[in-house]
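Students often ask what a 'structure token' actually looks like in practice. Rather than answer in the abstract, let us consider Galactose-3-O-sulfotransferase 2, a protein of 611 residues. Its sequence is given first.
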Amino acid sequence: MLSPPRRWRWIREQPLSSISTCLRRGLWSRHHYLWILLVLLVVCIAIQTFVAHQARTSSSDKLTGLPRLRFTVNKQHLFPTLQNIWEGLHSESSLAVNQDAGLLHTETTADPHHENEGYGKSLDNILWKHVDKNISLATGSQARKVSPGKLLQKHGDKPAVEVPGSSVLHGTRKGLIVSTHKRLMNTPTPSSVSETHINSVLTKATCNPKFHIVFLKTHKTASSTILNILYRYGESRKLTFALPLNKHSQLFYPFPFTSNFVEGVSSRSVKEFHIMCNHMRFRKFEVAKVMPKDSFYFSILRNPVAMMESIFIYYRSIPAFHKARSLDDFLDNGWSNYNASVGGNHYAHNILAFDFGFDNNVAADAEDLEERASMAIAAIEQDFHLILISEYFDESMILLRHALCWSLKDVVSFKLNSRSEQTRHPLLPNTAEKIKKWNALDWRIYLHFNTTFWHKVDTLIGQERMKTEVYELRELQGKLANTCLKDGGAVHPSQIKDTGLKPFQYGAAVIQGYNLNPHIDRQTKAKCQTLITPELQYTDRLYTQQFPELAAKLKKASKVVAPQRQHSLASARKAHHKQFVRHTFSNPNNQRAPTGSLLTHKESNDKARML
Ligand SMILES: Nc1ncnc2c1ncn2[C@@H]1O[C@H](COP(=O)(O)OS(=O)(=O)O)[C@@H](OP(=O)(O)O)[C@H]1O
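Now compare that with the structural description of the same chain:
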């Protein structure tokens, strides 16, 4: 062993050419601690670089759908989504939540819907490619251009329908104080989830599109436009609809819904229904017999003031309105003109409450009005995941698309079932107040859900994001109108060239429709046509696709009746319907059915007029 001074000398005397010698020299030099620090520094930098690289890789994995984890980890469990939160909050127990989430996950990977997704997408792509082409053409001066505003009324800052009293309504946009509110605070709603959590969900989330859906189609609330969205979504993905028995257009409204109103239930010919969306008088326990447990329930409400103006024109022929010279005349003599036990009169009084399955006959000064309103609101909160607002249709679509985990393109639409200006009647200043009083139950329900709607917007989406998405949606709709429509907007029914696309006309209303742009190719035309196909024709088509044999039988039956009667189709259905209803309502359990005509306004009329 060399002593330290001799060791330094020996190292210094070694040739510098060798690296090991160099290192040894450094380490054994008097500044060797500096070398140790340098090495530690290099190691630290290397570790940091490695960690940063790993983080980048994993975040890009999340964005691309976690490809590395896909086969081993359930994404839903990694990042709770907006959709999960909605479901979770409405499930009856945490156990149920877990079961449902598991169910959804299994179905999402195993369901033919997902295998078929490409089918729908490829057809959609044809349309969207065409739209994009049109946009680039539209930048040239020759192109027809339609602003989003021409096709759809702008909402948000301005009410969709200017009715006296709408300022009152807009005053309540956020600031509702309904006596029922406190009581309902304990009801779990999506709004009770913290905003921070939701925002983090919105930025990180991946989610699975929902396709088990129940839409309660309320009256005169823009529900036909939503029906069209659901029909298109389902048809392009080959989903199964819970359609009315015997090719009816409605689920035997106004009778309280019963599971055997649905085609394929009694015969057990349909294994699973994906979407239920035709008019019905809601009864949750009966709907639940038909629809999967994890179904998403939603509906739409409209300001009862604007709604009543629409109803008065559309259902002008119901007994309650018969004698009235005007809406004011009816409202001034409401109770003397209105007999609740006469068929069809339910349209005239608290129709929203009626459609949701409640007793609609309550006076504004009734002692139990507040209690009944609270109960109705609590029941709706319990049964429905989301309640949309017609006045804010575009905002509603954004909320819906997030809840269902759908794309923006999935919720584009053209306004359907809209009256021409000539059949709209401006209301006198105090008429709005009279309507609120006459429909006191509906008014309370509407106020409550108008508030929860905006609360959801604030907590789940945020005002800024909502504005951006509404803008994008309107842009898309404008572009779609440029591609699909002749003259870019709705026309008087007499101007509709293709009679198969003419909407059903009823009462004193003139319901507008659309003409297709004649300069589009066949495939694009087929796709555009789905956007403007009215409710009755589309329901007919889906029934024929889903039940070809039954549809053929019904067609044959109607041909037999045809020579005897002009109104062949309606008559055949009427016979089937009467027989069915007699059978169904001879059961004492179904005695809740209201009296009056067995057929609804749409069904009792001559469909041949329109088909
Ligand atoms: N996108 C959009 N935004 C706002 N409002 C809309 C939209 N689509 C339809 N509508 C209006 O909704 C009314 C028709 O409602 P429904 O389709 O539910 O009627 S029906 O009960 O099925 O007959 C009807 O109202 P009125 O025109 O006042 O009668 C339509 O104009």
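One point worth highlighting: The longest helix spans residues 32-63. Ask yourself how you might have guessed this from the sequence alone, and why that guess would often be unreliable.
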